[in-house]
Design goal:
The chain has 150 residues and is mostly beta strands. It has one domain. Helices cover 13% and strands 68% of the residues. The protein contains one helix and seven strands; from the N terminus they run H-E-E-E-E-E-E-E. It has a seven-stranded antiparallel sheet, covered by helices on one side. 18% of the residues are buried.
């Protein structure tokens, strides 16, 4: 849950930067520094996220926005054991704004891999919804899991 909240804050900040630039495609390097739960252990992670934003106008007057975040040199240390960790993975958000319908798909695969026998946290989340112009939700999926290995 903490990772999702932190990521949503990053998304909002990065979209504001991209929107003000007026670009059709933009890469943004976003500093990351937070304490996250790794299999019951607090780990201080720091590094960067590479945010890529692509805006495409559709022929029907709609807009597709694809946003991706990839950790870049994201490393951390357990606050209790001193074990070292590396953050890897990708988060992808696809929003389609079309006349009469909006769809959003959020796919997050964020893994924190421990060194030397420290546990690995494999966090996955997939969410999707489709909303019609009248506000009716016609499709909704929200699934998340975290697997601890080691």
């Amino acid at each position: 849950m903490l990772r999702t909240g932190a990521l949503l804050g990053v998304v909002v900040a990065a979209l504001a930067v991209t929107a003000s630039a007026g670009a059709r495609a933009e890469n943004v390097v976003i500093p990351f520094n937070d304490v996250v739960d790794v299999c019951g252990d607090d780990v201080q992670l720091s590094g960067h996220l590479l945010g890529t934003f692509v805006f495409n106008e559709n022929r029907n007057g709609g807009l597709t926005i694809v946003t991706k975040f990839n950790p870049q040199g994201l490393t951390g240390t357990s606050l209790s054991t001193g074990a070292r960790y590396h953050g890897v993975g990708v988060t992808k958000i696809t929003s389609v704004l079309a006349p009469g319908v909006t769809t959003d798909t959020f796919v997050n695969r964020f893994f924190i891999i421990g060194e030397g026998g420290a546990p690995n946290s494999l966090f996955s989340q997939t969410a999707h919804f489709t909303v019609l112009a009248d506000g009716r939700v016609t499709a909704s999926v929200d699934k998340s899991s975290e697997v601890c290995l080691g």
